[in-house]
Amino acid sequence: MFISQSVVNPLSSLDESTWSDQTYIMKVINVQQAKTHLSRLIDSVAAGECILLAKHGKPLAKLSPYCPEKETRPLGGLEGQIRISDDFDEEDPRIKALFEGV
Questions:
Q1: Residue 9 — left, alpha, or beta (φ > 0 → left; ψ -120 to 50 → alpha)?
Q2: What distance in Å separates the CA atoms of residue 86 and residue 82, rounded to the nearest whole number?
Q3: Cα 66 from chain centroid (whole Å)
Q4: What backbone phi and psi angles, to 5 degrees, belong to 94?
Q5: CB-CB contact of 45 with 64 (8 Å)
Q6: Do 52 and 26 meet the contact criterion of CB atoms below 8 Å apart?
Q7: pLDDT at 75
Q8: Residues 5, 58: Cα–Cα separation, whole Å
Q9: Cα Rg, the chain, nearest whole Å
Q10: Pairing of β 23-30 and β 51-55
Q11: For the segment 16-72, what is each residue's pLDDT rounded down to a tens digit?
């Protein structure tokens, strides 16, 4: 029913010391097959699989598991607990001398 194709990790050839040479196996599904077997595809995606939807052999969309966004931290909360000196952005002559070699 489904045709599996391997999709090579595009980052694998950038830097051998940093990136691995992993190959991702991803199902490439025709749009018509996806319409017919949508509930099966959703079950596969829910299990962690990624699926490419293609039309005439050209990828159009990627089905991947939903990852909820992390809760954003509220700004503030330390009002009155932190004090910033009035001269915090003044130039320090010792550091200037290090940069200028004086």
A1: beta
A2: 13
A3: 13
A4: -70, -40
A5: yes
A6: yes
A7: 87
A8: 13
A9: 26
A10: parallel
A11: 434 444 555 678 899 999 999 999 999 999 998 999 999 988 889 999 999 888 888
DSSP string, the chain: --EEEEEE-TTTTT-TTTS---EEEEEEEEHHHHHHTHHHHHHHHHTT--EEEEETTEEEEEE----PPPPPPPS---TTT----TTTTSPPHHHHHHHHT-
Listed residue (57, 38, 35, 55) closest to 46, CA to CA:
38
**13/98: higher pLDDT:** 98
**pLDDT tens string 85-102:** 888 889 988 999 999 986
Tokens found for residue 70? 């992390």
Q: How far is residue 76 from each of residues 69, 73, 79, 94, measured CA to CA in Å?
A: 21, 9, 7, 33
Question: Is residue 15 pLDDT above 50, yes or no?
Answer: no
